[in-house]
Amino acid sequence: MTAADELRALVEERVRAVREKDGTTLIARPTEDVVTFDVLPPLSSRGSHATAGHLQQWFDGYRGRIDYTVRDLQVHAQSDLGFCSFLYHVGGTLTTGEAVNMWVRATLCCRRIDGRWRIVHDHESVPFDPATGRALTGLEPQ
Q1: Which residue has better confidence, 103 or 40?
Q2: DSSP 98
Q3: 33 vs 120: CA distance, rounded Å
Q4: Least packed by Cβ within 10 Å: which of 6, 34, 50, 64?
Q5: Residue 117 · residue 30 · CB < 8 Å
């Protein structure tokens, strides 16, 4: 299996884990000093401990299953360094009854450490309207 194949498997693992609300699998990939720029507050966080708490809060905000689908995955890897960029759809019903249906941009920067790919930088974003400053969460991929 090539490094690129291993990184594709990492993304597939992430998709399964989100759908199953499996925080244990998700927090096993980031390094202890991972830098995260998430679509949810705060602006940034550092460390896998922050990721774990934030992840559980996100899961708890949904009534049931979270729809999580990846598309347009691009993987680049050389030796022990690689990155994955993709769009993901997240959907479901929040505990407030509000429906979520949005696309997010994501990039994972990864390093192979002791033979296993780990996430060292996780960046997610949504586009915004420069005239209003509001997030454009209703955009669809083309």
Answers
A1: 103
A2: -
A3: 7
A4: 64
A5: no
